[in-house]
Amino acid sequence: MNNAAIYYEPSAFHLRGKVMGRQSAGAAFMQAVADARPNRVWCYASARVHAQDCAQTLTELGAPRTGVTWIPFSQPQHLAEPGLLYRPDPGIHADAWRRLTHARPDAYSLCGITHTTASHAVMDVLADLPTAPLQGWDALICTSRSVRDSVQMLVENRIEYLRERTGATRFALPQLPLIPLGVHCERFASTSDKRQNARLKLGIEPDEVVVLFTGRLSFHGKAHPLPMYLGLEANAKTAKIVLLQAGWFAHESIEKAFQADAAALCPSVRCIYVDGRNQDNMKQAYAASDIFTSLSDNIQETFGITPIEAMAAGLPVVVSDWDGYRDTVRDGIDGFRVPTLTLPPGTKLGSDLADRFDMGIDDYDRYCAYTSQLVSVDVEAATQAYRRLIVDPGLRAKMGQAGAARSREVFSWSVIFRDYQRLWDELAERRRADARLAPALTPRRRSERADPFAMFASYPTEHVGPGASFRRHEGIDLAAALSRLELASTSFAKSILPAPALIEALLTALEGDWMPFDVLVRAVPDVSPEALASAVVWLSKAGVLDFHKQP
């Protein structure tokens, strides 16, 4: 993997703690990297320990011989060697500013990826794309056509505002390639023996039809269970149905809500819940099931990996015709897509929901929850889709086989990772070809990330410079000066404080009367003026030196 560095923050690549879609995608990506068996991986990380975590992760995933080269966050200019930085989120705008500050716009490419786009933080990132120093050799991977539409809407709205406000006419934007998330298909393959054992362990009778839902069990942030419960209950008079929900609840009140609603809406359906964070439970769930379903109705969903995992397991799927599901499930081939309905753009209620979220009246969870209440999944169509699969084992087998083949041919990580690498090569070629045509940009810092001594330059009485003079404070010797480095309120900052040798050199140079700073620079020639300036400021703060402005 010599054509990209990975922006590595361990929590983005491990299935620990609170697991969301982006963690699952990150962990699967790392497995794809390991499966590619690269000789070397570039790791762009804040600390060496994170690069070591990257190396350990690759070893655990089967690539012990892959070398990991650490590029510290503080040295982004070294990303020019791999030629591209891939980060597992959409935040490439921030790295574009760092590139402009520390390198050149054509020094390397940037590549990010979308996950949920419903939060304020992500919307802000996406809306800022037109004003960040991004280029046509950068890219933001969109995992579905729907999410790309959302990104384009945010970008176009911001551009329209900037044109009206400033008269701007030229905008450099990243590419928005469409590449889905992938699955490791071999993990989901099953056998008749595995199926028999799984059904035995779960207490499934031979004549029961098992319908599986996997993922977070959240009526407000994933998929409201109401249409699923109603559709299955309508079929429970003609078949013995088990609803196997393999996932997890955020807290007890949500668990009780699911159980209460299931008892009220599908009393004839036998419900089983298993912890989907346990991989053995997940393997059993896929092996024991006959049909997969996910009737997502939530705007926080942008792609939806679980139907592809179910397809890889050979299950026919019944999903809502919603966002990324529309790109992954072929209606009538791999399963059925159930129509959805919501309000048109521009309604007052939509504006009200946006305002309440913007003003902090509603938090993110409630914003998603309220919106999902106004997304309808066709209950009758879901009922009919379930019925066709419940009563027809042959159709289940046919659709399951079609989905399994599609998962291998289109969504296998071996295929997706090659698409990534192909994209990265294309961006490198575009960078080489187009850089000379791009408008020149002056290296600069992002204004809202300013040097604090520039932004707050008017705060102090004086700045270190030719007009400032220093002398040794009376009664302070070297031992007393060095002891100030060890104070409890000071020692935390040792990484930016003067070294003992420099303190000794300064005290020696300042044994006489007041000395102007420019003279002090000549008296300690082996140290840069900037390092001397930092040292005399801190030594003055610590009461080791006195300072005043020359008349």
Which structural traits does this protein have?
21 helices, Rossmann fold, 6-stranded parallel sheet, 551 residues, 3 domains, alpha/beta
What share of the residues does DSSP label as strand, in percent? 5-15%
CATH fold group of the largest domain = Rossmann fold
The coarse silhouette is elongated
The low-confidence runs, each spanning 5 or more residues with pLDDT under 50, are none
Per CATH, the superfamily of the largest domain is: Glycogen Phosphorylase B
What value does the Rg take, in angstroms?
A: 30 Å
Give the total of domains: 3
Number of beta-strand segments = 17
Quick one: CATH class of the largest domain? Alpha Beta
Number of helices: 21
* Oligomerization category of the chains in this entry: single chain
The N- to C-terminal Cα distance equals: 62 Å
Mean pLDDT: 95
Class inferred from helices and paired strands: alpha/beta
User: How do the strands of the widest beta sheet line up side by side?
Assistant: 3-2-1-4-5-6
Share of helix, binned:
40-55%
Protein name: D-inositol-3-phosphate glycosyltransferase
Organism: Methylobacterium gregans
GO molecular function: glycosyltransferase activity
Domain Glycosyl transferase family: 195-339
